[in-house]
User: Fold these one by one.
Assistant:
Number 1:
Amino acid sequence: MAERDGYIPGVPCWVDVSEPDPEGVLAFYRGLFGWEFEDMMPAGSAGKYFIGRIRGGDVAAVGSIPEGAPPVATWNTYISVASADDTATTAGKAGGGVLAEPFDVMDAGRMAVLADPDGAAFCVWQAKNHQGAKVVNEHGSLNFNGLATPDPQKAEAFYGAVFGWRVLALPSGLAWTLPGYGDHLEERSPGLRQQMAQTGAPEGFIDVVATLSPIPDGADEPAHWSVTFGVDDAHAAASQASALGGEVITKPFDAPWTRSTLIKDPQGAVFIASQFVPENRDVPA
């Protein structure tokens, strides 16, 4: 169990899924992850935005597809920033695109929808009353965000300019790090560095904020951000997802430290469910 009360700039802080029929998938996520939902939109609003919670703590949200956006169910990654306006400007200068100019989300915060130079879309979040996910890194909650890209070097230049991220090579693959993030985590949880060292975490892992996966040449896969939720049992999660009307795209497989499965919800939004498996520490990437 891990609970958060805020995020420093440059750290993924929230996820939501845009669905053609938000109410139609609530039973799926309720059954799979145990989320309890509350519609945050005022009565009579054209769109819906249901925040999912565990023990009363915000985890993620299910909402309508924004007007003008492609009619495709999609999980969205939000990254904490000090200023959505400044970040949008920086992203444009770094070669990215602004898909939705900065706007206020009632009294919750201010956001913008951006794209990196290869077209991977993501959101930036300037928190006001909504700080982001409260419950993370446990069953049914956000565990990781990841970028898949055909050009890691171009991505490194862009995300480095926008968020100050650096690329770290780990035995399990590439990852994004935010210098100083580990110091922040250690301040919040004294002894965390030592705990991670004792479990065999690679050097520098405490600064990791996301993963980075190169898309092979010739692969028919666009650049995109992915969302990973923690689960207690990947096999059980895959089975439950199928029973609830979802589709298991990739059956559970072992990877360094994890056992993961790729799942599509009943309306087509894809996400990863990942089980922490310490004995998989030395499994080849």
Note: Residues 18 and 66 are 8 Å apart (CA to CA).
Number 2:
Amino acid sequence: MVASLITSLAWILLSKRLMQTHSPPVVTSYSILAGAAMLAALILGPWLLNPLLRPVTHHDFQPPPFAHISPTAWAALAVSGLFCTATTTLLWNWGIHHVPASRAGVFLNIEPALGSYLGVRCSANTSALRLGGGALILAAAITLTTRAHQPEPAVILE
């Protein structure tokens, strides 16, 4: 969980820094291409390196892992990638381009709150501690997003 939060924070700060010189669609495109390249290396890497590690015979050759996927599944994957990944990433980058990173980070906490809420609703297992934690996350999000933006001081006194 902590590693996930650190990774998310690094992504926000890196995206915010990149958007000082590039537009949100450009940052979105490069982040999706980088993710696709990493996924391709993870999935296809072992398949491509297998023949290099030992002699290949005709009995050892296996088709690529995506050889038996139906056209309907490929179409669903394309639609999902376009609307669920590309569009939401573009909207996220547009949002953090227009708000401070500290406010954008608050929305990262809404995802676990919503996940907790849905988990409780699906399992019908509620406790005061779970409800209190979800309430604190939502209260922080509401407080930080509805409060007027105060300019940061030019000099920070220690």
Note: The two ends are 32 Å apart (CA to CA).
Number 3:
Amino acid sequence: MALSNLVKTIQNIMRKDTGVDGDAQRISQLTWMLFLKIYDDKEKEYELLDSAYKSPIPEKLRWRNWAVEDTGITGDELVEFINEKLFPGLKNMSWQRGDDPRAFIVKEIFQDSYNYMKSGTLMRQVINVIDNEIDFNNSTQTHIFNDIYEKILKDLQSAGNAGEYYTPRAVTQFIVEMVNPQLGDKILDPACGTGGFLIDSLEHVRSKQVQTPEEEKLLQNSIYGTEKKPLPHMLVMTNLILHGIEAPINVQRGNSLANSVRDITQKDRVDVVVTNPPFGGIEQEMIKKGFPTQYQTSETADLFLILIIELLKNGGKAGIVLPDGSLTGDGVKARIREKLLTSCNLHTIVRLPNSVFAPYATVATNLLFFTKGELTKEVWYYEHTLPEGQKSYSKTKTIKVEEFEPIKKWWNNRAESEISWKVSFETLKGSNFDLDIKNPNRKEEIIEHSSVELILKLKDSFAESQRLLKEIENEL
């Protein structure tokens, strides 16, 4: 069955179930089912490689013993099994540090998973489609989850809540390639979402430097991440397992900002940070108090910038996505930028078009690249432009990997042009460390917006006004 038909078939079955309400629940339901199928297929591989392999999942709860069509249960019996045995059994798996970390991963994923489907008959139909149509150990089908994964993310975009944790693949690949993590580097995404940066980092190092089982083990133990919300956390864990990390125990669920930066020690620091932190959010007072007084702010992205600086080792490198709002502004914002420029070498800012994250956000964004422990002498800017003839990005016309090729060619042979320029540290210091530098080499042009773009801009403007009012209200 073709991928588009497979996903559509599953969604159509779920829509008939009265217990599943909306895209988010359908995606969550599909994800835990896919996880158990993937895990079972991976266990078949482990069993072939190790005759002594023992599954951490209790025997009766393993996918192969209740889900496969030949022996699978259905109807009320299936619903009762899922609700009364499967979920309680997986959520309450005993795990102590030092035990098989695979058990911890299963337990962690099911802590915040739920069965929304009420019809055991419909659930059986979904299970049969997943079990019969996909074999994750089949070399010709191993790409299928990546395709399903992309489809899930597009559905999340349609649901209107993916902007918090989804970054276009072209952007994650470019950032990782330019930061160029090495084997042995401790690589972190403190707001990892569905795991785009971690997967690309894993593949980047693996393809270039890993040649032995020992090097593969070192790589797997070098991938770190944190995600606040349960659904993207489940997706990143599933995708990492499919990409060869048997137990991604270093990817945790939680809020990276909740830990005081004052408590960060050398053992917590990392060699590489690649991330797209949430922006536009307002953090609570107790989160702000975990930061030094001069850097306390409610703006999520600004707090993440301070956190990232503190988490990097000297010589550590970062590639991050930040909105225009973090590049300008007085007070705390200016002090945070001063900290960045004086404790790190902010060598490159790539300015992206407003619509890169369309349709769920049209805020202007930037890619910042810096190295900790070196003073910034000058910042190079590169203005990424839309493909010729295209007015904006959209859900159907997304940013493509090949669009970054001109920037890659420019990267090691930098020269000023109509789309690239540099600004000295002294100039930035004189402007209160304002980094929102417009392109001085581009001729002014009249920008025409479609009615849809104007409506989106108005919505963003209203949302920003509401956020500022809320922040003022909280301060008062």
Note: The chain has 17 helices and nine strands.
Number 4:
Amino acid sequence: MVMNEVVVVIGAGSIGQAIARRVSAGKHVVLADLRQSNADAAAAVMTDAGFEVSAATVDVSSRESIHALVETSTAFGDITGVIHAAGVSPSQASPEAILHVDLYGTAVLLEEFGDVIARAGAGVVIASQSGHRLESLTAEQDAALATTPADELLALPMLQPDQVTDPLRAYQLAKRANSLRVMAEAVRWGKRGARINTISPGIIITPLARDELTGPRGEGYRRMIEFSPAGRAGTPDEVGNVGALLMGPDGAFITGSDFLMDGGVTASYFFGELAPH
């Protein structure tokens, strides 16, 4: 019996789907989202495009839920791809929720899927430009975010409620932690012959980004676009192109890396019109 190769997509949004379309031909896609209706809708779109897809639910703030997704996915075959594109934004959630979903949840996903990823498999975690605009942390803080066991992460002193009171700061810390965590996990995934990287997108036009652009931080987001070297927002397909490189044979020498693709917003933040005064 020939086992399927399985690509697991966590987060049924535009970016996860864009990457999956480029790397999942001939493989079984398990598409998971917090809401079954979102997973079903995305699965229907991909099925109509010729992919073999199963829809599932997952709560990335829960180890039990993530482990159940691993069990569901391995029943279809060998997991050769993991695309983690689920998360909440600063306009959507409290600092506590952001740290539970975006920081703790990503750490658990890397641990759980790192235990089963197949040889020559690859994963991509969607981080954010925001992680690049957080001030430098100490070497000890970087190491703690990268290597503290996931179930102990939220007890770190730097992540306590009196230290993280703003949703944006929680988001920046979570996304910085994602790239650090992936760097550390690349060592462990490498022992299985697999690779893992992060992509840190800027403003990509998705339903979530539209919420941000019209929300309380909208003026700042519009300013980022106006004063970025690219002068525009990005598209999910552009992130999909980078994801395909990182997960495919052309990216076979790339692991433990973070790819910032923000149209130059971060460059402008440090050296251009967006620089804080």
Note: The first helix runs from residue 14 to 23.
